[in-house]
């Protein structure tokens, strides 16, 4: 027996007549009758009491109705689920990000937009060290990542540049630099630079003034970087989106006059992704970003 037999059985049970049931099913009456006989033979019991103008359920037939209805519903649900999964409407996405993606607000906007359109796709989010994100995508621990570029990516990982923002200088409130009306790159030659995960801003500032920076610790995420600034361990060149979001005691943010460097937030993903839900996410981010260009 297969699901077709259950559908035939239920239609006969509802119509109480083989001819009407056959009409509803779009098959010939003799064909329907044979299918029901095949069911009865497979089950070893009669399902209907056949009379001249109608049929009635036997005790075995009545017992089968509820189970047959459940089987048909489950089969149809499985079909719908498989089709929806194939269209990327249900599924699971593992997403990793650097903290600055949250500070900029882009991660929130993209996740909220995707979840509104695809509420049955589960998103599992985790903040991770930026250096580890590309490798986690390659080995399948993550599906999508948000990083700061430029960054060397392994083969098979593609990137999409999103928003750019400038850099600011984080420094302790008792630093001599706070007394300057404006801070330029050349003022920073004697400073120790605490390094965020993306160091391009630091290198750009030093290049602008033609000096080799004194590199301090690289403690990890931006919170750890700003914490060391708060402890007067050095200055840090960080994305301007941290202003107003990372407020620690003894820390002030100042623009760097003349610095035109940019920090780009980027989406990274497997170049030949096959999971429909992940593909949907990537396509949605691309579409929304291109609309803004």
Descriptive terms for the model:
10 helices, Arc Repressor Mutant, subunit A, alpha/beta, single chain, 293 residues, D-Maltodextrin-Binding Protein, domain 2, five-stranded mixed beta sheet
Average predicted local confidence, pLDDT? 90
CATH architecture annotation name of the largest domain: 3-Layer(aba) Sandwich
Q: Assign the structural class, choosing from mainly alpha, mainly beta, alpha/beta, alpha+beta, or little secondary structure.
A: alpha/beta
Mass-distribution shape: rod-shaped
Sheet with most strands: 5 strands, mixed
The CATH class of the largest domain, by name, is Alpha Beta
What's the total number of strands?
Answer: 13
Number of helices: 10
Low-confidence stretches: none
User: What fraction, in percent, of the residue positions are helical?
Assistant: 40-55%
